[in-house]
Amino acid sequence: MRKDIILHLSALLFLFLLEILGIFSEYHQGNFARILVLAAYGVGYNILFGYTGLLSLGHALFFSAGLYASGLSIYHLDYNIEQSLFLAICISALISLIIGFLALRTIGVSFMIVTLMFSQIAYLSILYFGSITRGDEGFVIQQSSRVFLSMDLSNPKIRYYSALLIFSLCMLINLWIAKSPFGRVLVAIRENSDRALMLGYNVKLYKLFSIIISGTISGLAGACYGILFGYVGASFAAVSYSIFPLLWVLIGGAGTVLGPLIGAIFMFYLIDYASDITDAYMIIVGVALLFVTLFARRGIIGELRFRYYKWIS
Amino acid sequence: MKKNSKSNLSRRKLMKSIAAVGSISAMPGFVNYSQASSSAPIRIGFQVHRTGIGAAYGRWYDRTTQAAVKIINDSGGINGRPLEIISEDDGTDPKRGAEALEKFANQHNCDVAFGTLFSHVVIGSAPRAGELKLPYFVVSEGHHVASGMLNRYTLQPGITDVKSQVQAMAPFVKDNLGKKVTMVYPDFAFGHDHRDYFSAAFESQGGEIIAKVPIPPTESSFSKYFPKIPRDTEVLYHVMVGPAVLTFVKELGEFYGSKGPKLFGFIDSVEAVDLNTPGLEFLDGSYFWEGNPRYAQDNQTVHDQFYRTAVGVDKNGASVSDPKDVSTYAHMFGCWETLHIIKKGMEVSGYSDVKDRSKLIEAVESMNNMPLSQAHPQGAKIFNGKTHQTFGHQYITKMTNGKLVLAHTTSIEDTFYPDEVDYTKQSF
């Protein structure tokens, strides 16, 4: 237990030291800021998929709910960052509650299809209400609006620390869930929901809580992405942004706390380095993903846990 | 289940961890690049749509860029230094576009970034360009630059924007084709720009938009939308982009045959499409906006002739090596002209390295008249330094016997509209 907590805190300390010791070049500093926010999104996805066993193909809905709630409130209503973040969290939680309530009437493949459809509705709505959302073009959150407690969030250092703070918060929530009785019930539901039901747990209610937590974390990540990087656009609501967190979690290790981070780093740099080698970089990415899937079926952290370190959450 | 209550972090493990950190920090790119020399190439980060919805445009943007770089280098480069293009695929995706700029500025130490057509990629990338203080020359034709949405580091000096293009079309459509127009356009921002700016310009001319038919961006079959076009439509204004454009025009032909309203379209609907494709015969007699006429015209200038040859485009607008590989001629000239503007800006400002980026921007902002020349084969232009947007002639061609023949050239003044921003007031 203690070793596990030390490992996760060390990972965060490591990310902090990379910046404070100046190990990063500017390029990797910017990349890691982006990766950390996306990994926070992956953490949200992992709670639903990795711990509860519900495969959603529509998580871009939650990410974009946060992105647009904060972005639009800044763009149209002149909200400050604090207000917009609060609004984004509330909207994401509310949407998660509604989607969860409706989607949980289904299971398995139907759940995947229903979540995908809801996500598509959100995507097309963003395009349809283009006069408000600026449709597919999206809009810019100006640098002057990206100030939090007198700190300029477009400053590379501040942006990195902000991204690390958001990721740390999400990861620690995930760790707490993994260690808590609540998290153990989620895992029990994932492994055998009928048995969990027989043991007296309100499976549907637990699943609903899982969706709300997952959707809210995803929405928070979306809001932070817009605020830290200054752009809000419909492409973040497209189906590809529902597939990405699934890939990160599968590569890193479903049901592991560090899995989404490792998966996001792996995917990001795989594309980055492969694109330096050839224009057909997606072939390299595809082959690499095939190898990971074939030889590390539980994902990188999942495989480490299975083979060597049983104590990793 | 075994419980582990003690930490097993030995000194050896700690040393291993430190070594791991050291190894990662030694990986390629984890150290800052530092190279600057007066003879070193000027590095231009080229953000290109190699994959995604914009791939057809990207392919030709790339060829035009390479041709322009060869011409510039063969004539001595910029301030005696050769140009080097660092290409990066943006996947026609704004997130990836911003990452490409990051790479240009911090990994490849590029002097400037340029390229890209699709406006969402530009809008998604521009904030990062501003933060990186990287001059970002876009070839997008979106109104986003002149609207004031972006920042001082983003400029569009080599291609006109959609607002100026569509408003310049309105008088011709009303005077020559008809007063009752139905618009068919993609239901996203690009289509909305057409809807809003053309409607306003056309109605101010005394014309009437009798119906607007938006088509969802995910649509792959269009037949069901055509019955929405009113029977008393005199002119059908159409614009479509993306991989389904050929299906769109073919189904339009199947719906109307040789009968129907007069057609006025933006070439985007058939950009990179061979107009002699079976099923497109109905387009004969219809009119198109073209940023630059695809077919070599009777009055072709020597500059267009030079540019066409340099890029490897035949008189029909297709690749000289493959007549079926049709170019995006209406747009790609923007890459050629933008690179020549960067060259001129660097020469005027005495650009030597990245610390002179603001001088380069000021030099471009001070440009105004850009006469028809080898550097501007599409035509003369007037650049507005305040709005960072160029204005130029627009071409209307008529499909005649399978070719697009020039019917009208607008004046530059037809494309003007009041300034919406003054970027020169923004600090660097």
Could you characterize the architecture of this molecule?
- The complex is a heterodimer of chains A (313) and B (428).
- Chain A has one domain (2-238).
- Helix content of chain A is 75%, strand content 3%.
- Chain A has helices at 2-20, 26-51, 60-77, 81-103, 108-128, 130-133, 156-179, 181-191, 193-198, 203-229, 240-252, 259-277, 281-295, 300-307, and strands at residues 139-140, 147-148, 151-152, 231-232.
- A two-stranded antiparallel ribbon of chain A has the order 1-4. Chain A has a two-stranded antiparallel sheet with strand order 2-3.
- Chain B has 428 residues and is an alpha/beta fold.
- Chain B has 2 domains: 42-160 and 332-392, Response regulator (Rossmann fold, 3-Layer(aba) Sandwich), CATH 3.40.50.2300; 163-290, Rossmann fold (3-Layer(aba) Sandwich), CATH 3.40.50.
- The longest helix of chain B is centred in the C-terminal third of the chain and has 21 residues, at 329-349.
- Chain B is globular.
- The model of chain B is unreliable at 1-9 and 24-37 (pLDDT under 50).
- The chains are: A mainly alpha (313), B alpha/beta (428).
- At the A-B interface, α1, α2, α5 and β1 of A face α1, α3, α4 and α6 of B.
